[in-house]
Specification:
Rossmann fold; 7-stranded parallel sheet
Length: 249
């Protein structure tokens, strides 16, 4: 077992599958204890059982402040503290202006933007008490550039990028670092539902392939660890070059 996160206790939202599950597995492998937060009770409980005594599951609807309060309390009760928060849960949908509904808009923002706000609100005191602490907000390449037809998703991810910066400035004197991660297209159940079955060829041109969850997880582990002690209020892009610009020919 590696020890880059030895002694750390993390709460990860949306951790029952996809990138969140990859993060949870890596955190435990690197020596951390993890609370897996998700609305998928069976999958979350199964992952916690797989990961063993340094993992626990908490039902977490990120749009409900009471769920956040309970998840933070579970981390402190079970593992004694909370010093890492990973706001990973997110939803993706889209549609053209004129047909995209207010209900769709509000749902995406409630999960992708209000969710992290509620999470940090609930975890703030525990993170300060455990200082030095770290918050990792999973934004998107869509938080760096627009995506036609993905209006709520783009707005939510730009918003999370901004919230990261304001929170980083406020919490710096209290020993809490806050950074955002901006993945491009990553092979997860969410992407698979839109595109069908996809695989990753790591020898392919990065601009022409999707990423693997583990390629994002490596960055999240870094930001949760003391290795990134001088990093706060920053964007970390892992998108295969998507936001580098346009190619011709």
């Amino acid at each position: 077992m590696s020890s880059r996160l030895a002694g750390r206790v993390a709460l990860i939202s949306g951790a029952a599958s996809g990138m969140g599950a990859s993060h949870a597995r890596a955190f435990v492998a690197e020596g951390a204890a993890v609370v897996i937060g998700d609305i998928a009770d069976a999958a979350g409980a199964a992952l916690a059982a797989e990961l063993g005594e340094r993992a626990a599951f908490a039902h977490l609807d990120v749009t409900r402040s009471e769920d956040w309060d309970a998840a933070v309390a579970e981390a402190v009760r079970r593992f004694g503290k909370l010093d890492v928060l990973v706001n990973n849960a997110g939803v993706l949908d889209g549609g053209p202006i004129g047909t995209y509904t207010e209900k769709q808009w509000q749902h995406v923002l409630s999960v992708n933007l209000t969710g992290p706000f509620l999470g940090l609100t609930a975890a703030r005191d525990a993170l300060v008490a455990a200082r030095p602490a770290a918050v990792v907000n999973i934004s998107s390449a869509a938080g760096m550039q627009g995506v036609a037809g993905m209006h709520a998703y783009t707005a939510s991810k730009f918003g999370l990028r901004g919230f990261t910066k304001s929170a980083a400035l406020e919490l710096a004197p209290h020993g809490v670092r806050v950074n955002s991660v901006h993945p491009g297209g990553i092979v997860t159940p969410m992407i698979g539902a839109m595109t069908g079955d996809v695989t990753v060829d790591r020898d392919a041109d990065t601009l022409k392939r999707l990423g693997a969850p583990e390629e994002v997880t490596s960055l999240v582990v870094f930001l949760a660890s003391s290795e990134s002690s001088y990093c706060s209020g920053a964007e970390f892009v892992v998108d295969g070059g998507m936001t580098a610009g346009s190619t011709f020919g």
